[in-house]
Design goal:
Blueprint: H1 9-18, H2 21-32, E1 42-49, H3 78-89, E2 95-98, H4 108-122, E3 127-129, E4 131-132, H5 133-142, H6 147-156, E5 162-163, H7 172-178, H8 185-197, E6 204-208, H9 214-229, E7 237-242, H10 257-270, E8 276-279, H11 281-284, E9 298-302, H12 306-310, H13 319-328, E10 334-335
Parallel strand pairs: 1-2, 1-9, 1-10, 2-3, 4-5, 6-7, 7-8, 8-9
The structure holds iron/sulfur cluster.
Length: 348
């Protein structure tokens, strides 16, 4: 493996179950150094703007959504969104990621109009992650558009990124247990393929710590590596974060940092066709920085995200403390420009 050969699913299972933390660290660092210096630690300051919490998908792990007509549901106007964006510009944010729900009022045309306007107003200053693959799929379905048609419309409106969010654990057994109303795995990859075909960049994501089995986690990686192998232009990054168990129907507990680091190392080792592996400050705060010694090379510092905060995440208000902590670990965090390699070879 240190010589560069791939591991298979059985080997991933064996490593996860039996390897020591030190062994996983060594192997993950070996794969990281195929792409980066071992101490590589780039970061970006970003904010997640939650434009609506209305959703009909009804995932049991979600603390964020409200059904249509349920008290507490909201849909922000363009003016409200612009006010939020401008407040984040004042905080020197480089990237805004939009995340909402499966809101039956929002068709592709609504997103087209919104992103054309935001692109005109702020495109010179900010990078936008317009939506997640999951939201995109729903908007295409209710607009009666194919995924390719929907993606082309958004690309023409200036959308450059639709990120892989909403993936959680991409195996159908998990989806049936927790998220029947969202999509099937084959459908998800069809949508992501259409997004890439329309020259919109995308990313890969995963969330762990629900009740998924090790076989389901590895199934997620297997299908993802296969999908990535098929791309002419590979997706630039993979991000794994952790489930937060508060205020939802599923409940449970949050996995330890040690478990997160073990899994992050397996992701780095298994996903040898991803250049960038990102560690999750959003859900692990400063502990996530330890992931930079377990194969990760990058992290976002989020300033806001209602979805994870409602499920129990605590966002560090002073992001300099995260950077100070990284330096205390012997790292030299380097700001990465969201614009540096646009549109295709940068990462999100
Ligand atoms: S996770 Fe997303 S799709 Fe599922 S219920 Fe929550 S907002 Fe809706």
């Amino acid at each position: 493996m240190l010589a560069g050969e791939r591991i298979n699913a059985d080997q991933a299972k064996h490593l996860y179950t039996h390897a020591s933390l030190d062994e996983l660290q060594t192997l993950a660092t070996a794969v990281k150094t195929r792409y980066h210096q071992p101490t590589c630690a780039t970061y970006l300051v970003m904010a997640i703007v939650n434009y609506t919490n209305v959703c009909i998908a009804n995932c049991d792990f979600c603390a964020f959504f409200r059904f249509p007509h349920q008290a507490g549901g909201y849909l922000l106007s363009t003016a409200q969104l612009c006010a939020k964006i401008e407040s984040f510009i004042d905080l020197d944010v480089d990237l805004i990621a939009f995340n909402g729900g499966f809101n039956p009022k929002l068709k592709i045309g609504n997103y087209e109009q919104l992103f054309a306007e935001l692109h005109t107003r702020y495109g010179h200053r900010l990078t936008f992650f317009a939506m997640t693959v999951a939201e995109f799929m729903f908007a295409c379905k209710i607009s009666k558009l194919s995924y390719l048609q929907g993606a082309k419309i958004l690309r023409a409106a200036g959308v450059k990124w639709i990120t892989g969010g909403g993936a959680e654990v991409l195996v159908d057994s998990f989806r049936q247990r927790h998220s029947k109303g969202k999509y099937s795995v084959a459908d998800y990859y069809d949508a992501q393929q259409a997004i890439l075909a329309a020259s919109i960049s995308s990313t890969a994501t995963m969330v762990i710590g629900f009740d998924e089995t090790l076989a389901e986690r590895i199934g997620h990686l297997e299908r993802l590596r296969e999908f990535q192998d098929q791309q002419d232009i590979p997706m630039p990054s993979f991000l794994c974060w952790t489930y937060k168990p508060e205020n939802n129907r599923l409940g449970g507990y949050e996995i330890t940092t040690a478990e997160y680091l073990r899994w992050l190392a397996i992701c780095r080792i298994y996903l040898d066709n991803f250049k960038h592996i990102r560690t999750s400050v959003l859900t692990k705060n400063a502990d996530a920085l330890r992931g930079l010694a377990f194969g990760a090379d990058d992290f976002d510092i989020p300033l806001a995200d209602e979805v994870t905060e409602m499920a129990g995440a605590t966002i560090e208000a002073d992001y300099q403390r995260i950077l100070t902590h990284a330096r205390q670990l012997g790292l030299q965090p380097t700001l990465r420009s969201a614009f540096a390699n646009m549109p295709k070879s940068t990462f999100a």
